[in-house]
Here is the input.
Amino acid sequence: MVVAGNLSDTEFLSALSTQALGFGGGSLDLLVHSAGQHEPAAVEATTAQSFDAAITTNLRAPTLLTAALLPALRAAHGMVVFLNSSIVHYPRGGVAVYAASKAGLRTFADCLRAEVSGHGIRVLSIYPGRTATPMQRERYEAEGLEYRPERLMQPEDVAEAVLAAFASRAEVTELSLRPTNKS
Here is the structure.
């Protein structure tokens, strides 16, 4: 089932968490946060609107959804996955707001892990390299580069990494992924 909505709308986030709880009967095995907002700009060209959009999508929404779903995750001894960005490890100019929002997400995940690991909830941060998504297509176009999705990781590669970490009996806390560039 696909649910579309605005992650900046607190009422939508509440309805989304209620709907998620309805599927699991009060328990939730796996919560994956994969939405991202990226509007590159130099610091002096950053608008309040683009700042708010990045913080709302990349940090506020995952925080509020996780908080609402913690009882269900606790009941299932579930796992929370945050699809972060390699920008956290490799910062560069022109993306300060995006990088800051993702660094905040990393810190949130680390703090959450400290709070919930004693309750059997695992927390994973994944830092994927360039993945063939519409956002990457836009990034390549903005950078004047040829977009060749076959040279990038595929969304399925990231999903497989999530499922492997979920299936593991060990707690995987961080995972960096890179395309192999075999194509």
